Amino acid sequence: MAHRGRTKTTGPNHDLDHGTTIKISTNGQYTEETTQYFLDSYYAALNTRQEPLSSFYVPPAAMDGGKLQPSISFNGAPIRNATALQAIFEEQVPAAHYEVQCYECHVVNPNYVAEGAEAWPPATGKNMTILVAVSGCVKYGNIEEAKQRGFSETFLLAPNPVAAANKQRAKDVKEWLIQSQSFRIVV
Fold it and tell me: Which residues contact 149 (CB under 8 A, 6 or more apart)?
């Protein structure tokens, strides 16, 4: 699903907050709304730096074969974990303003069940992983004077096992977490 110029989903039944339950649709609306909400939240956190970036990632763990997750690449450099990425943003990256210009989202695995999570019926959409490809622009430093640069970012989102196990979801628990991410400045 390709989307241009959308940075917020609003309107009847689309005002999303951490406590929103989204109805499942066979036409991919759930995937689209999930992705839109995730992108709104993630890039707002990057822009304001009021929420820790590490809260958007799966907890560090080793997968079969010893590969670590989350898998994070920042301009081609592998980043050890979400805490290390957050340190880079706090210590090396000046204040920034990210703007998503378009994105695409696709279900990769409709039957993914995280360790320790409950397997939900497929119609709920709670067991899927979502591939998200983002294109946008960013300004580093003084927003009024900074040169605009293009960026490309790809995420693999996985269901948060804590949220999936919690029927009465708390507002501060994210439903979807980054399992894999690749960010690159392109211009």
Answer: 137, 138, 139, 140, 185, 186, 187
